[in-house]
Design a protein that fits this description.
Rossmann fold, alpha/beta, 4 helices
Length: 107
Amino acid sequence: MAGEAGTAKEALQLFRDLQPDLVTLDVMMPDEPDFTAKELFATIRRERVKTVIVVISASPRVPTAAQFLSQGALVYMEKSFLNFDELLRRLTFLFPDLKPRRAPSSS
């Protein structure tokens, strides 16, 4: 089962409802300043350690990547190099048993 959230608070509720094996987490989430992607990441790690987290960001700041990776993110991807097909390609490389609902476009 999959879900999509627009804010960190929505994502946390969806995470708790679905208990997913994989979470893709965008660093830039439109939330109040008191609840950030870093806090969401930490909550996911604390509540369900076996969930795999792939962090995605438009920010090329290496300290951000290093911080998420050191805290247990499996992968950190920059949006500037990413479209849906590339994300799907990378995820199917990391998770060979992943069954996408649609094939990547041939580009």
